[in-house]
């Protein structure tokens, strides 16, 4: 599903050249559930941006589901993002004026999916994430956990190859975090590939594989005995 080969990312900070990713190589197979961990400045956020086609590497090759995306232009990257990747963010990123259905179907506005199919997909996902009783509510009328469920459904609406979750429980209490992670575990067990950034070991324990980063490099890549498999 994902192959990174000698990925390096540098950027200029004043007169200093900063290396955010330093010769990173890794593979993520279809239907893996991977957690990426590391302290601030370790490179995990930059790695997530590269994986999500939000940023391009300075050098190296990135193959996503058979597409070499490391050197694509912005328009093509946008197309790849919309087709292959679903995003879940710590702060939900829901539009306040749209209800649950509107927020979930938002990514389909830029596709050739018909309104009928969009509604069918949204209704199926709303039921799947347990929000049938909230489908016409707006974000401010829901709890943090409910809003994150909406965000998860939105990430799935394009039937992506991989879900990228950036601190998906960062704004939630422990009980709600467990509920969201149980939902992500169900998605993984149903065949979804998930890559998740987290700084919490108890959240990483839900994954079947943990990648640890430091100074822009992968320093540990282990199977997680307490994970979902």
TrEMBL record:
Superkingdom to which the source organism belongs: Bacteria
Protein name per the record: ABC transporter ATP-binding protein
SUPFAM superfamilies in the cross-refs: P-loop containing nucleoside triphosphate hydrolases
GO CC aspect terms: plasma membrane; transmembrane transporter complex
Start and end residues of each ABC transporter domain: 2-229
GO molecular function: ATP binding; ATP hydrolysis activity; transmembrane transporter activity
Database matches in SMART domains: AAA
Species this protein is from: Opacimonas viscosa
InterPro entries from the UniProt entry: AAA+_ATPase, ABC_transporter-like_ATP-bd, ABC_transporter-like_CS, ABC_transpr_LolD-like, MacB-like_ATP-bd, P-loop_NTPase
Family membership: Belongs to the ABC transporter superfamily. Macrolide exporter (TC 3.A.1.122) family.
């Amino acid at each position: 599903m994902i192959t990174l080969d000698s990925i390096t990312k540098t950027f200029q900070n004043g007169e200093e050249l900063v290396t955010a990713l330093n010769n990173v190589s890794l593979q993520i197979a279809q239907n893996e559930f991977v957690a990426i961990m590391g302290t601030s400045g370790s490179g995990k956020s930059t790695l997530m941006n590269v994986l999500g086609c939000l940023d391009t590497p300075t050098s190296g090759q990135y193959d996503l589901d058979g597409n070499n995306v490391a050197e694509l232009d912005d328009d093509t990257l946008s197309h790849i993002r919309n087709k292959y990747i679903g995003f879940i963010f710590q702060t939900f990123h829901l539009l306040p004026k749209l209800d649950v259905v509107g927020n979930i179907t938002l990514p389909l506005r830029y596709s050739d999916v018909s309104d009928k199919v969009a509604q069918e997909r949204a209704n199926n996902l709303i039921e799947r994430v347990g929000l049938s009783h909230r489908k016409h509510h707006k974000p401010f009328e829901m709890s943090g956990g409910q809003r994150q469920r909406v965000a998860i459904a939105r990430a799935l609406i394009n039937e992506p190859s991989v879900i990228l979750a950036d601190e998906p429980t960062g704004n939630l209490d422990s009980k709600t975090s467990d509920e969201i992670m149980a939902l992500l575990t169900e998605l993984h067990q149903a065949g979804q590939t998930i890559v998740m950034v987290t700084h919490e070991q108890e959240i990483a324990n839900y994954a079947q594989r943990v990648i640890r980063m430091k100074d822009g490099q992968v320093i540990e890549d282990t199977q997680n005995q307490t994970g979902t498999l």
